[in-house]
């Protein structure tokens, strides 16, 4: 054990002595920058060591230059940013403990101000160990003047420290693309604006083509940045006066400057849907195939034309579409000056087995341009194929295809999921479902899976690294290394497979230097090997990384491909989970995680938006899967949850309803 003995502040330098239970000349003090954006499970952004001097007997001392700390650890908008201290001796790590006497001295030292943009406090953490907390100062960016011309927009901006009104020099003004349109602060692409003077910046409209615009709606935020040492603060730019904002079109995109709810300047980018009007419609005798005829002059270049059926979703009042299936060019032929596309519903929706209605749209794509297929009249075609009811409607608004099905069947469960899924199948406590085994048998469980890890190459497993894992739990650790899930699933003889994406949406995975991934389930992240080796020698790979969404999609595609060879996709159930913002206290009173300051509204919205997007991508690529969604019941978290308290652990009724809803889903299918 290591215990702080004395601490002194001298000219931005901390001199700290401590007692250590063993004599050693090889001691180091390791500073670890906490990854404060991680959800519940601890991780570190960066680590560096400080030399230790042996004073006498079991007493040691180290000197910490606070300027060195602020320069070693790059921090962006630090808010309750913690640095943890560990004493390293012979590759073993111990906490640096703080008693009440030293705690009083830390309080006397108080807030240290060695940086214009942040404050530092040494403190005793709740677990009695030494910590260093960094907090940003409030910074406000202001748009002083906005000028548009045909070619560019010019912005005069300024920044101040809100508490003192001190003027700040701007490091840069950037335009940042949100990774998820409804979640500011998480960005995937960034462009620095040209600096034309001390506080004047310009954006040429043509340079907007450097961004990728894959979605129907994309949001770009203007963000100012100021910097002192390695502390960087970013903020949106607020309007000073009413400004005339511009809307223009470029590359079949509409760019609209607007003020966000927080009065920051942003650009909303919408894909412009061109119109391709059908000249005639015909169908075969049983209406399982429909022919659409177009005038070729509607299109710019016929050779680049492709046709897709898109899965359609509505997210926060915006249409969100994913390409489901391409109508191959072999099904497209031109005669005279006409273009004909044949929609064979039997081929398009082959193999789909579902309970809930699914909505699709039909579009023609010419490079980046999207053509909405329209008709002057309202035409409706209804048919039945393979037990599916298919209803196609085409009018002046576009083409809609709705499929629905009702079909009975009945069971052995496999689970690739977390507490959102697995906890319902707990027969030991009344909180869950003591009688579930009368209806279901859980034949296989992979707890806390990550698609990134599942689709990765195997990693050598060393049992000696996990001596602190119980023998009965070791399989869950081995599975993350050996990637044997699909082999195990094939041998489990399951009837239905339940899946949720909590881990990837909230936690991500650890990425090795060679590109392989390791999942970080509960059995792993409680171990010494995780804290002292994995966190330091692998990278956290989650929603904040600009490549995360693309790599996750690739992993999801690989997962679906492997899954389809293991289990009938009609028998896969997606658990549509989410974090709740409210909970019941011990008196059964409704409380708010947000108002209580336990989580921010932005945090919970972020995780839920990511999770929902993953779900929607998955069901687009695997439309036969079933969906189990308990959000309609508005269940809350519970402070008396048997495992732990948080927005991911629900009241008892959630788990009881889970079994009921799953039963209904299976009976109906």
From TrEMBL:
InterPro entries: DUF6270 (IPR046237). This is DUF6270 domain-containing protein.
């Amino acid at each position: 054990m290591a215990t702080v003995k004395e601490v002194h502040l001298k000219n931005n330098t901390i001199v700290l002595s401590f007692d250590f239970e063993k004599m050693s000349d090889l001691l180091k003090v390791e500073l670890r920058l906490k990854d404060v954006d991680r959800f519940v499970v601890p991780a570190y952004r960066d680590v560096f060591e400080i030399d230790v001097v042996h004073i006498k007997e079991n007493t040691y001392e180290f000197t910490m230059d606070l300027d060195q700390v602020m320069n070693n650890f790059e921090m962006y908008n630090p808010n309750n940013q913690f640095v943890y201290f560990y004493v390293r001796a012979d590759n073993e790590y111990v906490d640096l403990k703080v008693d009440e006497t030293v705690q009083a001295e830390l309080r006397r030292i108080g807030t240290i101000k060695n940086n214009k943009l942040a404050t530092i406090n040494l403190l005793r953490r709740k677990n009695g160990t030494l910590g260093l907390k960094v907090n940003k100062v409030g910074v406000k960016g202001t748009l002083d003047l906005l000028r548009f011309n045909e070619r560019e927009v010019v912005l005069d901006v300024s920044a101040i420290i809100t508490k003192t009104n001190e003027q700040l020099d701007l490091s840069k003004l950037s335009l940042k693309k949100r990774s998820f349109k409804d979640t500011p602060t998480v960005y995937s692409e960034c462009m620095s604006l040209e600096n034309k003077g001390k506080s004047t910046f310009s954006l040429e409209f043509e340079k907007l083509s450097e961004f990728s615009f894959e979605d129907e709606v994309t949001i770009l935020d203007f963000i100012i940045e100021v910097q002192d040492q390695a502390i960087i603060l970013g903020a949106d730019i607020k309007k000073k006066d009413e400004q005339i904002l511009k809307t223009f079109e470029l590359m079949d995109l509409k760019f609209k400057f607007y003020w966000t709810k927080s009065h920051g300047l942003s650009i909303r980018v919408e894909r412009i849907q061109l119109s391709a009007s059908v000249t005639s419609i015909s169908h075969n005798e049983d209406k399982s195939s429909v022919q659409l005829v177009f005038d070729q002059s509607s299109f710019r270049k016929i050779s680049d034309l492709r046709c897709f059926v898109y899965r359609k979703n509505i997210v926060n009042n915006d249409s969100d579409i994913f390409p489901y299936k391409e109508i191959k060019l072999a099904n497209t032929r031109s005669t005279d000056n006409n273009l004909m596309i044949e929609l064979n519903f039997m081929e398009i929706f082959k193999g789909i087995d579902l309970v809930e209605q699914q909505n699709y749209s039909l579009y023609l794509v010419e490079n980046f341009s999207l053509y909405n297929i329209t008709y002057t009249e309202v035409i409706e075609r209804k048919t039945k194929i393979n037990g599916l009811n298919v209803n196609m409607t085409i009018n002046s608004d576009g083409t809609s295809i709705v499929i629905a099905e009702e079909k009975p069947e009945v069971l052995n469960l496999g689970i690739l999921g977390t507490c959102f899924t697995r906890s319902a199948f707990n027969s030991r406590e009344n909180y869950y479902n003591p009688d579930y085994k009368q209806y279901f048998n859980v034949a296989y469980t992979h707890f806390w899976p990550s698609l990134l890890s599942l689709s990765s190459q195997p990693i050598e497993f060393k049992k000696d690294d996990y001596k602190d894992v119980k023998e009965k739990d070791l399989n869950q650790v081995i599975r993350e290394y050996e990637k044997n899930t699909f082999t195990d699933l094939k041998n489990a003889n399951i009837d239905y497979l339940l899946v949720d994406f909590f881990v990837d949406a909230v936690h991500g995975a650890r990425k090795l230097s060679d590109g392989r991934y390791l999942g970080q389930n509960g059995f792993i992240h409680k171990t010494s090997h995780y804290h002292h080796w994995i966190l330091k020698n692998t990278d956290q790979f989650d929603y904040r990384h600009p490549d995360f969404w693309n790599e996750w999609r690739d992993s999801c595609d690989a997962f679906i491909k492997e899954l389809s060879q293991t289990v009938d996709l009609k028998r896969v159930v997606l658990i549509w989970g989410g974090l709740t913002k409210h909970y019941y206290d011990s008196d059964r009173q409704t409380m708010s995680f947000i108002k209580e300051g336990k989580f921010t509204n932005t945090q919970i919205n972020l995780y839920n938006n990511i999770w929902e997007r993953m779900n929607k991508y998955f069901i687009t690529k695997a439309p036969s899967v079933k969906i189990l969604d308990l959000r309609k019941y508005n269940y809350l978290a519970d402070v008396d949850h048997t495992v732990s308290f948080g927005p991911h652990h629900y009241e008892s009724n959630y788990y009881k309803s889970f079994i009921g809803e799953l039963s209904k889903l299976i009976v109906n299918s």
